């Protein structure tokens, strides 16, 4: 069976994630609003679903712009692919990228209604990502992988 998007019901939804890094080697995270269906009131990275006709890289650029107002300037590396199941029962295949952006990094334009707060975290601050996620360490593992990749680049 195929959906209107042309995707088989058995195929995972494709997602792109941005591990945005600053000059100090910190990674940007944002808090999802309490009204979000998936992972309400939790910390997350920038990213989202690939739309019909988009590549993963196109979605990455769009999501960075929509969720922060910044412009993706460089993809430093692919951090990895992660398959996960949302509490909506759908599987997603997420490709995460270590990125640099252009814009005022102290003033992201958070997407109204979707995100309520932001932080630039160091590897020592990974515990923040466990808040309100008692049984799911996916985001923590993704961000930890991003920090491991940063060490390869000498941060």
Automatic annotation (TrEMBL):
Domain of life from the UniProt record: Bacteria
Stretches assigned to the Nudix hydrolase domain: 11-143
GO MF annotations in UniProt: hydrolase activity
Gene3D superfamilies given in the database record: Nucleoside Triphosphate Pyrophosphohydrolase (3.90.79.10)
Protein's UniProt keywords contain Cell membrane: no
Required co-factors: Mg(2+)
SUPFAM superfamilies from the UniProt entry: Nudix
Pfam families hit by this protein: NUDIX
Family membership: Belongs to the Nudix hydrolase family.
Protein name: 8-oxo-dGTP pyrophosphatase MutT (NUDIX family)
Protein source organism: Catenuloplanes atrovinosus
